[in-house]
């Protein structure tokens, strides 16, 4: 093994890697495949023999899979990187140099870019309870503008280095010393909010979380389709409920869970009414079925891991909603 400075569990399998070598000196690449069925495992084994591959027989979820990589990584820093990303230029060297120069920084988040080069939202403040009732629900357009601007840190320039509460997990570099202090990702989050919880734990023990715009990574964020994927809703909302259960207790979490279920029940009624008047009936049938699945789940975090995602990145547990936070409508 190389004398690694940075280990990268969850790295995109499409990154160019020379045979039996790492693409950047001092970088260890670990790919954890969550039971994909698209030939990714065979491709990595054949085309990238220098990559350490862990092939899970079932979908263990995003935090658990990344924890597998973290457990065997040898680097001084751990970079969690989504498979739908492209590292720009000397981004890794830039992040390493910054972290080395600032020993009180536990987490570094690069600037995420959309494929067209525009800046993608990737830094946040910790969510107040009111945020939970608006973000990624059909009430989000009604939320006070200042509330969301503050949460998405739109009141600060996006080209300045700054301390933030948390950065999204599509690309996140953590200092090993800090990880050893706070522990790995919380596997009670099957998907979504795990990086929010992790950064909060880093912050609580005194580590800084820094947004570093000089380091850039293109994130090909999943597009919302006309067909609602129920697993996305279930995983996102159950993670939200679990986060507030963890930090604000069972009463707050239960109130949020019931509110969200009511939200889906209302939406189910609207879709049914649109079906009755004959508006895009095939779409309404798909949405009605999806919202019924969400309601049947009860949005209980303990049941989220049993939900089968509907293809694509969701099947691998590697997707993140890091744009405006809205769920597909």
Provide structural commentary.
- Helix 8 (230-248) packs parallel to helix 10 (281-297).
- Strand 2 (27-34), helix 1 (40-47) and strand 3 form a beta-alpha-beta unit.
- The chain folds into two domains: 6-219, Spore Coat Polysaccharide Biosynthesis Protein SpsA, Chain A, CATH 3.90.550.10; 230-316, no CATH class.
- Strands 1, 2, 3, 4, 5, 6, 7, 9, 11 and 12 form a ten-stranded mixed sheet that branches. The chain has a two-stranded antiparallel sheet with strand order 8-10.
- With 329 residues, it is of the alpha/beta class.
- It is built from twelve helices and twelve strands.
- It is 40% helix and 18% strand.
Topology:
Elements: E1 6-9, E2 27-34, H1 40-47, E3 52-56, H2 62-72, E4 77-81, E5 85-87, H3 91-101, E6 105-113, E7 119-120, E8 123-124, H4 129-134, H5 145-151, E9 162-163, E10 166-167, E11 171-175, H6 176-182, H7 194-204, E12 208-219, H8 230-248, H9 250-276, H10 281-297, H11 301-304, H12 312-316
Parallel strand pairs: 1-2, 1-4, 2-3, 6-12
Antiparallel strand pairs: 4-11, 5-12, 6-7, 6-11, 8-10, 9-12
Helix pairs in contact: 8-9, 8-10, 9-10
């Amino acid at each position: 093994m190389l004398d690694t400075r940075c280990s990268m569990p969850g790295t995109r399998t499409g990154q160019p890697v020379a045979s039996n070598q790492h693409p950047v000196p001092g970088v260890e690449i670990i790919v954890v495949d969550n039971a994909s069925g698209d030939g990714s495992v065979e491709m990595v084994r054949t085309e990238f023999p220098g990559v350490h591959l862990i092939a899970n027989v079932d979908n263990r979820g995003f935090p658990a899979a990344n924890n597998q990589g973290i457990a065997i990584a040898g680097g001084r820093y751990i970079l969690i990187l989504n498979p739908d990303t492209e590292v720009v230029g000397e981004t890794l060297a830039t992040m390493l140099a910054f972290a080395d120069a600032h020993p009180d920084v536990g987490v570094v988040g690069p600037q995420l870019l959309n494929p067209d080069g525009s800046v993608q939202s990737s830094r946040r403040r910790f969510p107040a309870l009111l945020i939970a009732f608006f973000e990624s629900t059909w009430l989000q357009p009604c939320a006070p503008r200042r509330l969301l601007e503050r949460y998405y840190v739109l009141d600060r320039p996006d080209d300045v280095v700054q301390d933030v509460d948390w950065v999204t997990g599509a690309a996140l570099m953590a200092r090993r010393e800090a990880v050893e202090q706070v522990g790995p990702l919380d596997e009670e989050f099957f998907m979504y909010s795990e990086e929010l919880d992790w950064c909060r734990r880093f912050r609580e023990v005194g580590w800084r979380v820094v947004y570093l715009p000089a380091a850039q990574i293109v994130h090909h964020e999943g597009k919302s389709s006309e067909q609602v994927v129920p697993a996305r809703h279930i995983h996102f909302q159950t993670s939200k409920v679990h986060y507030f259960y963890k930090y604000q207790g069972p009463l707050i979490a239960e109130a949020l869970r019931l509110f969200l279920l009511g939200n889906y029940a209302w939406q189910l009624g609207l879709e049914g009414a649109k079906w009755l008047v004959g508006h895009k009936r095939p779409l309404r049938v798909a949405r009605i079925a999806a919202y019924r699945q969400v309601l049947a789940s009860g949005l209980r975090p303990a049941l989220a891991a049993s939900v089968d995602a509907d293809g694509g990145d969701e099947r691998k547990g590697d997707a993140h909603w890091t744009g405006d936070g809205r769920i597909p409508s």
